[in-house]
Amino acid sequence: QVQLVESGGGSAQPGGSLRLSCAVSAFIFKTYVMGWYRQAPGKERELVAGFTGSGTTNYADSVKGRFTISTDNAKNSVSLQMNSLKPEDTAFYYCYAKRGPLLPTTERYDYWGQGTQVTVSS
Q1: In terms of Cα–Cα distance, which of 46, 42, 23 is closest to 34?
Q2: What is the pLDDT along the chain (122 residues), one digit of tens a residue?
Q3: CA separation for the pair 62, 81 (Å, rounded)
Q4: Are 20 and 33 spatial neighbours (Cβ–Cβ below 8 Å)?
Q5: CA separation (Å) from 37 to 28, 63, 103?
Q6: In this structure, which long-range contacts are made by residues 103-110, counting pairs with CB atoms below 8 Å and at least 24 apart in sequence?
Q7: How many CA atoms lie within 13 A of 65 on its CB side?
Q8: Are 33 and 110 in contact (CB under 8 A)?
Protein backbone atom coordinates (compact mmCIF):
# COMPACT_ATOMS: atom_id res chain seq x y z
CA GLN A 1 0.00 0.00 0.00
CA VAL A 2 1.46 3.32 -1.06
CA GLN A 3 1.68 5.91 1.66
CA LEU A 4 2.64 9.54 1.54
CA VAL A 5 3.77 10.41 5.05
CA GLU A 6 3.52 14.13 5.70
CA SER A 7 5.14 16.00 8.54
CA GLY A 8 5.53 19.60 9.57
CA GLY A 9 2.90 22.26 9.38
CA GLY A 10 1.26 23.86 12.36
CA SER A 11 0.95 27.51 13.26
CA ALA A 12 3.09 30.52 12.52
CA GLN A 13 2.86 34.26 12.75
CA PRO A 14 2.82 36.43 9.64
CA GLY A 15 6.33 36.69 8.33
CA GLY A 16 7.30 33.42 9.92
CA SER A 17 8.39 30.13 8.40
CA LEU A 18 7.27 26.54 8.35
CA ARG A 19 8.55 23.45 6.60
CA LEU A 20 6.51 20.55 5.28
CA SER A 21 7.94 17.20 4.32
CA CYS A 22 6.48 14.22 2.53
CA ALA A 23 8.18 10.83 2.62
CA VAL A 24 7.38 8.04 0.18
CA SER A 25 8.76 4.72 -0.94
CA ALA A 26 11.80 4.64 -3.16
CA PHE A 27 9.69 3.45 -6.11
CA ILE A 28 7.28 6.35 -5.83
CA PHE A 29 10.07 8.84 -5.27
CA LYS A 30 11.94 7.77 -8.38
CA THR A 31 9.05 7.29 -10.79
CA TYR A 32 6.32 9.71 -9.71
CA VAL A 33 6.24 13.47 -9.92
CA MET A 34 5.61 15.06 -6.56
CA GLY A 35 4.47 18.34 -5.14
CA TRP A 36 2.04 20.13 -2.89
CA TYR A 37 -1.51 21.38 -3.19
CA ARG A 38 -3.47 23.35 -0.65
CA GLN A 39 -7.10 24.00 0.07
CA ALA A 40 -8.44 26.83 2.14
CA PRO A 41 -11.97 26.84 3.57
CA GLY A 42 -14.48 27.65 0.89
CA LYS A 43 -11.89 27.58 -1.87
CA GLU A 44 -10.83 25.09 -4.49
CA ARG A 45 -7.71 23.02 -4.11
CA GLU A 46 -4.79 24.75 -5.81
CA LEU A 47 -1.29 23.76 -6.79
CA VAL A 48 1.27 25.37 -4.51
CA ALA A 49 4.49 23.93 -5.86
CA GLY A 50 5.46 20.85 -7.77
CA PHE A 51 7.98 19.17 -9.96
CA THR A 52 7.34 18.47 -13.61
CA GLY A 53 8.19 15.30 -15.48
CA SER A 54 11.34 16.97 -16.77
CA GLY A 55 12.49 17.93 -13.30
CA THR A 56 11.63 21.60 -13.41
CA THR A 57 9.45 23.26 -10.79
CA ASN A 58 6.17 25.11 -10.87
CA TYR A 59 4.95 27.52 -8.26
CA ALA A 60 1.69 29.32 -7.74
CA ASP A 61 2.16 33.02 -8.40
CA SER A 62 1.06 33.77 -4.87
CA VAL A 63 4.02 31.86 -3.36
CA LYS A 64 6.83 32.61 -5.80
CA GLY A 65 9.85 33.96 -4.02
CA ARG A 66 8.56 32.77 -0.64
CA PHE A 67 8.17 29.01 -0.96
CA THR A 68 10.75 26.52 -2.15
CA ILE A 69 10.19 22.90 -3.05
CA SER A 70 13.09 20.52 -2.78
CA THR A 71 13.94 16.85 -2.58
CA ASP A 72 15.99 14.78 -0.17
CA ASN A 73 17.19 11.77 -2.11
CA ALA A 74 18.54 10.03 0.97
CA LYS A 75 15.14 10.15 2.64
CA ASN A 76 12.97 9.73 -0.48
CA SER A 77 11.14 12.86 0.49
CA VAL A 78 9.97 16.16 -0.88
CA SER A 79 9.89 19.27 1.26
CA LEU A 80 8.23 22.63 1.03
CA GLN A 81 10.00 25.46 2.79
CA MET A 82 7.56 28.27 3.42
CA ASN A 83 8.98 31.65 4.34
CA SER A 84 7.42 35.07 4.76
CA LEU A 85 4.12 33.44 5.54
CA LYS A 86 0.92 35.38 5.13
CA PRO A 87 -2.52 34.82 6.63
CA GLU A 88 -3.76 33.89 3.18
CA ASP A 89 -1.40 30.90 3.21
CA THR A 90 -3.64 29.35 5.83
CA ALA A 91 -4.93 26.12 4.36
CA PHE A 92 -4.78 22.36 4.48
CA TYR A 93 -1.69 21.29 2.55
CA TYR A 94 -1.60 18.00 0.67
CA CYS A 95 1.38 16.15 -0.69
CA TYR A 96 0.76 14.39 -3.98
CA ALA A 97 2.55 12.03 -6.31
CA LYS A 98 1.47 11.83 -9.93
CA ARG A 99 2.51 9.16 -12.40
CA GLY A 100 5.73 10.12 -14.09
CA PRO A 101 6.36 10.10 -17.84
CA LEU A 102 8.34 6.85 -17.81
CA LEU A 103 5.62 4.76 -16.22
CA PRO A 104 2.97 2.90 -18.21
CA THR A 105 -0.57 4.12 -17.95
CA THR A 106 -1.45 0.92 -16.16
CA GLU A 107 0.20 2.34 -13.07
CA ARG A 108 -2.06 4.30 -10.77
CA TYR A 109 -2.29 7.94 -11.81
CA ASP A 110 -1.91 9.64 -8.44
CA TYR A 111 -1.55 9.27 -4.71
CA TRP A 112 -2.33 11.80 -2.01
CA GLY A 113 -1.28 12.36 1.54
CA GLN A 114 -3.80 12.94 4.30
CA GLY A 115 -2.92 16.59 4.52
CA THR A 116 -1.55 18.85 7.20
CA GLN A 117 -2.94 22.11 8.52
CA VAL A 118 -1.00 25.34 8.17
CA THR A 119 -2.34 28.32 10.06
CA VAL A 120 -0.84 31.79 9.80
CA SER A 121 -2.17 34.33 12.24
CA SER A 122 -1.01 36.89 14.75
Answers
A1: 23
A2: 878 999 999 999 999 999 999 999 999 999 999 999 999 999 999 999 999 989 899 999 999 999 999 999 999 999 999 999 999 999 999 999 999 999 999 999 999 999 999 999 99
A3: 14
A4: no
A5: 18, 12, 22
A6: 103/31, 103/32, 107/31, 108/2
A7: 3
A8: no
Three state DSSP letters for the chain: CCCCEEEECEEECCCCCEEEEEECCHHHHHHEEEEEEEECCCCCCEEEEEECCCCCEEECCCCCCCEEEEEECCCCEEEEEECCCCHHHCEEEEEEEEECCCCCCCCCCEEECCCEEEEECC
